[in-house]
Every structure is written in C-alpha cells, then in structure tokens.
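Subject: DUF3592 domain-containing protein

B.,
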Amino acid sequence: MLGEQMERVMPIIMMLGIGGLAAVVGVRQLLRTSRLRSTGVRVGGTIVGQVGYSSTNRRRNRAAVFEFRTVDGDPVRVQQKIAVSHTLLRQGQPVTVAYDPADPRQAEIVEAKNQIGGAVLLITVGGLFFLVGAVILVSRLLG
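Prediction pasted inline below.
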C-alpha cells in the first residue's frame, strides 16, 4: 500500500523539487545581479565572444564572454551566468561592467537585460511548477 502511494506521488515530489530548485536559482541570480549592478565597481569592458549551449527547442542558447580591467589594472575574463536564446551583445561591443572588488570574477554587464529576464523566467516557471505540484500533491493526499 505504501509503495503504491509513493509510486503515485513520486513524480509530483520531483516536480516540487525541480520547480523549487529553479525558483531558488532564479532568486539567487536576481539578487546577485541586482547587488552587483547597484554596489559593484563600474568599469569599461568588451564583449569578446559567446559560448553556445544546446537547448530542447533546437536553438542555441548563448552566454556572452566579456573582458575588463579592474581599477587596479588586472585583466579579468568572465562568462554571463545565464545563457539565453537571444542576445543583443556582439563581439567587439564596448559595455559597462559592474564587479565585486573582493572577487572580480563576480561581474555583470550593466546593459545586459537578459540576465534579469532569465532570472525572472526561472523564478516564474520554477514557482509555477512548484505551485502546481503542491496543489496536485495536496489533492491526492486528501482525496
């Protein structure tokens, strides 16, 4: 009996876990991006390329790779944290970078709205999965 009930709820528990994890990752990215953009040291940088990732819709998601120099003159090369299917950032394009002086590899391109959009999308989809999973789980446990 218990095994049968676990078999019924296990996909729902996975839905809760995946949705919750996606939402947490989105919240962390949104907070990190917001913190860097509001309190980070701003310097000029340049887009030096893009890294492509395969996605399920046969499109390639891309994350910009950018370089900048800290105020101390140290060179830093960083890749955006969230890869998206559409970006307006092009190789050679000058950008404004906000970075954490304690860890310059923690950096964001100020003009890149796709990082906030990607984080919001993770929060929304993850939250939706979690909410739907919770409703289904409660209805099965009570019904």
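The chain has a mean pLDDT of 85.

T.
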